[in-house]
Design brief:
The protein is an alpha/beta fold and 206 residues long. It has one domain: L,D-transpeptidase catalytic domain-like, CATH 2.40.440.10. It has a 10-stranded mixed β-sheet. The two termini are 17 Å apart.
């Protein structure tokens, strides 16, 4: 995807390099439909604003993760954005069952409430990786009022069998998490390697 230089110049975020000011290239993974893999300008602007707002907590500003929950779960809607050159790698990611109780494949609501099993909107700080019930995972800390319970709710990044192109072929959508950012096991290594401790994940809808 290419975004105009004028758009980026309108964003007061010093993290973007001159190369990133000129382009954002979408390189979707897992699905061929590149039309659903673009970072929506409105969501990108809010993610960059969150990076600036939480600059005191975000140690590294080379990559950010942006989850666009406006899109259905069958779309590669989690974007790894390089702030050095504007390149984007897009992955499948599941939302919480509490955000989609009828299992339509679309996120209907966000929630920060304990026990909601829902996805929370807002800015997250990535923490250390560990091996837990879902295998290799990454701890997350919610930085906004809308996701302040993330750590106590054990909202993390992890891999899941129900996130795959094969699941989409069978059911037309992904399975649902308990509110975590659940990725295809084939994507997990890249997501964890790119978003190591001290980086931003921003989740919302357009």
């Amino acid at each position: 995807m290419i975004l105009s230089r004028r758009f980026f110049l309108g964003i007061s975020c010093a993290a973007l390099s001159s190369r990133a000011l000129s382009r954002v290239v979408s390189d979707p993974m897992g699905l061929a439909d590149t039309g659903t893999s673009k970072v929506a300008p409105n969501l990108l602007e809010r993610a960059l604003a969150a990076l600036e707002r939480h600059r005191g907590r975000i140690a590294y500003r080379d990559f950010v993760g942006i989850a666009d929950f406006s899109l259905p779960s069958r779309a590669p809607r989690f974007h790894l954005l390089s702030l050095a050159d504007g390149r984007v790698r897009s992955h499948l990611v599941a939302h919480g069952r509490g955000s989609d109780p009828a299992h339509t494949g679309w996120l209907e609501r966000f929630s920060n409430e304990p026990g909601s099993k829902a996805t929370s909107a807002g800015a997250y700080l990535t923490g250390d990786s560990y091996h837990g019930a879902h295998g290799r995972s990454v701890r997350l800390d919610g930085l906004d009022a809308t996701n302040s319970n993330a750590a106590s709710r054990a909202i993390v990044v992890h891999g899941a069998w129900y996130v795959s192109a094969a699941m989409i072929d069978t059911a037309g959508m992904l399975g649902r998490s308990e509110g975590c950012f659940a990725f295809a096991n084939s994507s997990l290594s890249e997501v964890i390697a790119t978003l190591g401790p001290g980086r931003l994940i921003y989740a919302n809808r357009v």
